[in-house]
Amino acid sequence: MAGIKDVAKMAGVSVSTVSNVINGRHGKMGHDTLCRVQDAISTLKYVPNAVARQLQSGQIRTLGLIVPSVANPFWGNASQVIEKEAKAHGYQVLICNAERDPDTEAAYLESLYSSGIRGVILGSSPVSLDHLQKQAEKGMRIAAFDRNTQGIQQLLSCSISIDQISGARMAARHLVGLGHKRIGFISGPIGTSSRIARLDGLRAELAKVGVELDDELLWLGRNASGFGDSQAAELGRSAIRELMTLNNPPTAVFCINDMYAIGALSGARELGYRVPEDLSVIGFDDIYLAKVMSPPLTTIQQPLEQMSKLVVAKLIEALRTDGAIDDPYIEMRPELIVRSSTAAPNPRKA
Amino acid sequence: MAGIKDVAKMAGVSVSTVSNVINGRHGKMGHDTLCRVQDAISTLKYVPNAVARQLQSGQIRTLGLIVPSVANPFWGNASQVIEKEAKAHGYQVLICNAERDPDTEAAYLESLYSSGIRGVILGSSPVSLDHLQKQAEKGMRIAAFDRNTQGIQQLLSCSISIDQISGARMAARHLVGLGHKRIGFISGPIGTSSRIARLDGLRAELAKVGVELDDELLWLGRNASGFGDSQAAELGRSAIRELMTLNNPPTAVFCINDMYAIGALSGARELGYRVPEDLSVIGFDDIYLAKVMSPPLTTIQQPLEQMSKLVVAKLIEALRTDGAIDDPYIEMRPELIVRSSTAAPNPRKA
DNA sequence: AATACTATGTGTAACGTATTACCAGTTCAC
DNA sequence: GTGAACTGGTAATACGTTACACATAGTATT
């Protein structure tokens, strides 16, 4: 374990001089001194101890990222893009799976704080952010990702999200436009801000055009306690089985995200329903799997890459400027991607 | 930002006493002292600085995890399980996406090392581990996951993997057993130990039973430079299009992992081929999506949960015992999961 | 009454780096 | 030839925590 002292001894200079070399203050010394130090560094395979450095400087170039579950390709992909972007800014990312549980989120936040991390990207997460108050007060900068910021802006340094409500309305409008009148809704437990908004959007649009949303067709993660996103597809499959065996089944279903939609596709086929002839399915997120499903999934797209770049840039700016940034709360426009899982309802059954 | 000194001052005791409280040495002090210190801690919202702690102790309860890509559900799910398991041992996990690039892996390893992390789980990764030598020499404990350990055991503290070769042979035997004689192989670039072993296994089994493996039917990630796993499904789709438009197309394809297989399913359907009637597709890994595909995917299962538990336990043990652990190199048995994407070849075309 | 022991705390030196103040030469203008 | 400015470098201290040796007082034992 070579330390800066060993390097100094070997090069015959003081530790401060070595420190100057490491930190690029080359102007402060003679050329031969510089060379001797550099030689010593490489022969000893010396790497500065980031821990000691941080303790001294109080700085650490690491961001926290709290997501519901990297097992869900949407978040897996988001994590990857965010990490890449952070790396481009010279930051590392510590990824945490919080499973949408407030206590787990709070525990991670405290742990990140105690590691010196002062910037965190919070993905999805529950409606109330009370559990984060303590850390926020102590100076943790929090950036929200994929959630609305109603009433919690004082806790947040910035936020990036799509307009969930209008996304859900686009989906609803698409289905209604095709002629559907019996529309189902499939989701896991409605605990996060984004899920609430999506359901609200669906409700609002259907109300506006005068289509009833039958409570019987709302499937909200029954028996799903403790299930993570890796089970989302399975839940979607169970859901569609229950909905399609009702006396008056839906002709179309809106799924809270693409994973549920993928499960719904699978379940519908098992029951002998053809998609989209007998049943239309629409998802949300546009994960990369949506286009390779059969049939390819109609869905609402989130501009993931742009959102990730923005959230990283904003958060780092907030960290540098001590919170004073322009335009901290951004809502992007989602987009309807029509593929082949939606069509007009089957007249025989309608 | 309250430190231990502030707590000590407020409670009217020395920093040592506060340290004792924090570290659970409650027997060393009077009851009222304990209470006063605890009060001070909570009113000041004091959280011990993990960095300073680590500097002192040289210990950090964090593991590094280097994976090809969390966007691939196999690795996303693995990351999640590993993280959960590590947490149960009181460790955090720092997840890094290395995209199968040796330089990126080396950079992450150095960065992890300088953060005081001394235990890393290395997922998949290139054949040669020369790029990791430097860190390994300095005392980094490396656990290999999902790769063979031929000739690199001195670099590794432990390893957990399935027997890739026998997994691939099981797949080949299954296809041959169904009567297939023209078998294709779809993969991205063959750069990692696990991919090499899978191809070797396929070759060995086919040679054994006297079925030719036509080079024309080997699709190895053409034009795939820089593509990550989120594109694997798309690559699978391109691959199947190329293979099925040959003069003498395959009747079955073996895909390097389930993501490619999912893409192959999609591509085959687009071309009008039915799976499994016209084409059999077999994958590898058994990600949770395999069973909700249509048709559900026949695949080779890796016992992910068990493997994850083992690798975490072994690595932590290696860290604690300074490398001396029993049975460090474990190969688990993969299992053939027969679903509905494989069947006997269509006699019309055979 | 002297000794030993227990319970309860305290003081301080690390840990490895960055920063600050400082010092010894050299050069140079006047 | 004298002091200011500059160059190349040193030494001391701080960062927040822990570990360990030591201090103090009260109580029990001989």
Using the CA coordinates, give the radius of gyration of chain A: 26 Å
Strand content of chain A: 15-25%
Broad CATH class of the largest domain in chain A: Alpha Beta
Total DSSP E strands of chain A: 12
Based on the structure given, which CATH architecture of the largest domain in chain A is correct?
Answer: 3-Layer(aba) Sandwich
Q: Main beta sheet of chain A: strand number and arrangement?
A: 6 strands, parallel
Summarize the structure.
2 copies of one chain form a homodimer. With 350 residues, chain A is α/β, with parallel strands linked by helices.
Describe the structure using short key phrases.
homodimer, 350 residues, alpha/beta, 434 Repressor (Amino-terminal Domain), Rossmann fold, 3 domains, 6-stranded parallel β-sheet, 6-stranded mixed β-sheet, elongated, DNA-binding
Structural overview:
Two copies of one chain form a homodimer. Chain A folds into three domains: 54 residues, 434 Repressor (Amino-terminal Domain); 132 residues, 3-Layer(aba) Sandwich (Rossmann fold), CATH 3.40.50.2300; 139 residues, Rossmann fold (3-Layer(aba) Sandwich). Helices cover 41% and strands 16% of the residues of chain A. In chain A, strands 2-1-3-4-5-11 form a six-stranded parallel sheet, with helices on both faces. Chain A has a six-stranded mixed sheet with strand order 7-6-8-9-10-12, with helices on both faces. In chain A, helix 1 packs across helix 2, helix 5 packs across helix 12 and helix 8 runs parallel beside helix 9. Chain A is elongated, with a radius of gyration of 26 Å. Chains A and B meet through helix 4, helix 5, strand 2, helix 6 and helix 10 of A and helix 4, helix 5, strand 2, helix 6 and helix 10 of B. The structure holds a DNA duplex (30 and 30 nucleotides).
